[in-house]
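Look over this record as teaching material.
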Amino acid sequence: MTWHQDPDTLSALELVLYGLLGMGAFAWHAAELGKEDDEIYAFIHRALSAAADRRTTLQDFVPLALECGKMNLRTMELLYQGHAERLADPEPMKVNLGTRGGKGIVVSGHDLPMLEEILKQSEGKGINVYTHGEMLPANGYPGLRKYSHFAGHFGTAWQNQTRELPDFPGAIIFNTNCIQRPDPSYTDRLFTWGEVALPGITHLEGFDFSPVIEKAMQLPDLPEKPGQEILVGFGHEAVFKVAGAVVDAVKTGAIRRFFLIGGCDGAKPGRNYFTELAQQVPKDCVILTLACGKNRFNRLEFGDIGGIPRLLDVGQCNDAYSAIRIALALAEAFECGVNELPLSMILSWYEQKAHVILLTLLHLGIKGIRLGPSLPAYVSPGVLDFLVQNYDLGPTTTAENDLRQALGA
């Protein structure tokens, strides 16, 4: 698309294209669950056609980017429905971060139906199954937790795979995005599946996971090593069940403010900002979190407010729909707009899923979002000025300064 020479037009075009990439990832997961909507596909075709048209201008791309956010909301809704119908709505559950004695398989990625199949096929074989990275929220689904050999979670964020997985002696399998080039110490017991593959690594097609199971049976046992327990499973349906207590706590002043701190994480320096921010959030405030950004602080102890946990893990990046539903429900309960809620959104940015979720928030008219540790490189000064003027979108600064602004101190 070299005919778009104007930097603002090119920037707006990239807003659309990266949005389509992110929405396409959500749509792929939804389609796997049998959830599709022809309007989503029609929009993708129309947006791509506009991107390839020399006559499309800046004034065309900006509303197209916001429409991408609108269509992504529908896409994420379908994905949530697909998971809930197959595995039941997530419920608050404690996840063990240690290991059980015996054979093991660890699954890293996002794909829940694939994990379900591994659990089915490994049942009764003396193998324990663990999640890693963005698979952590899978531990909140009753349809998965019913398997007694679903043992919990191993490790932390996706970017730490090469540091953590050498210490997992069992079989390892990656699905979907957010993977690192593996350390040679575990390539002989590593598999890929679905939309990801790596040179020299065994790739599995379909839903026959017998090669992974057989490999796990051949490998050494994991040690019996009890670990910390953390809570997951605070999807919107779970939060709605305690909505009355939450509203009352806000009205009485027990809860002063909500902070949504999460998003896509990475290894870039400066991301410790999100840990510092979460640690400094006052004890009369609740933190909502989701996606891999939560790994910066989800092992810390935050306590509760009148029995309501101060840290509510909404789920994967794939579960951003729940976070939006929670915000909209709070606005309805208080009979105000989302922008009038005692709510601050401070998001970490990394890749296209985070990008299209941001477009969805902008489509909903949500203002005052802070994005960090740096702004997307493809946002031109002119487009950034538009976002600042219309949505008060801005970069994160320091934890102290951003908290002070959020609290009006």
Notes: The chain is about 40% helix and 15% strand.
